[in-house]
Task: structure prediction
Amino acid sequence: MFNLILFGPPGSGKGTQSEKLIAKYGLKHLSTGDLLRSEIAAKTPLGLEAKNIMDKGQLVPDEVVIGMISSALDANPTAKGFLFDGFPRTGAQAQALDNLLELKEASINVMLALDVSEKELVKRLLKRGETSGRSDDTNEHVIRARITEYHNKTAIVAEYYRQFNKVVLIKGEGSVDDIFAALSKEIDERNKE
Ligand code: AP5
Result:
């Protein structure tokens, strides 16, 4: 099993690159943002609660997203590996993910962390907000709150994996294809069966 975390601040290109990576490597894509937006679209109680939090640019409680990831792992017993996008986002989520994978005698192979300047992140998200329909993209105040949550609560997740020598920083500015090539190179070096 090959398990990868695609890491980086809001707007760094995790979703864009995930689409290409899952097509190339046949991994199962697990995006907590996408799972939460599905709950919102279905108007479930969880979705309604999550929407209020997401619209403020804050993180949804750990137990909610850990529960979603636990269910998704159990629902895909034959997956050859997982690409985690937007998860883990706190130390508690990272610890929980390690524990869940250990139950399956698996672990995280590598964290690929996309490095993009704040100016570029805000520019990309405001541009996407013109057409995406994502309410958390339309307002610069909310975009900056998401980036602040990233610095305050999420950046430390890279420190957690760095102690196991699992983090590789990738330049996340430039063409989508060049960034994809850099990510693929790192995966190929580690995914030799
Ligand atoms: P989530 O859905 O995870 O969003 P995010 O982290 O804010 O990331 P984005 O989807 O905005 O950006 P991305 O890095 O995927 O970049 P993308 O490829 O889309 O989370 C949303 C909310 O859900 C959170 O705020 C939180 O409330 C909640 N949540 C989710 N997971 C949670 C968790 N684990 N715990 C707690 N709460 C959680 O690209 C962005 C834009 O840039 C696109 O328009 C794209 O076309 C463009 N772009 C991409 N690459 C390039 C490039 N190389 N050059 C120019 N433009 C580019």
Observations:
- The CA atoms of residues 70 and 83 lie 14 Å apart.
- The chain has a mean pLDDT of 96.
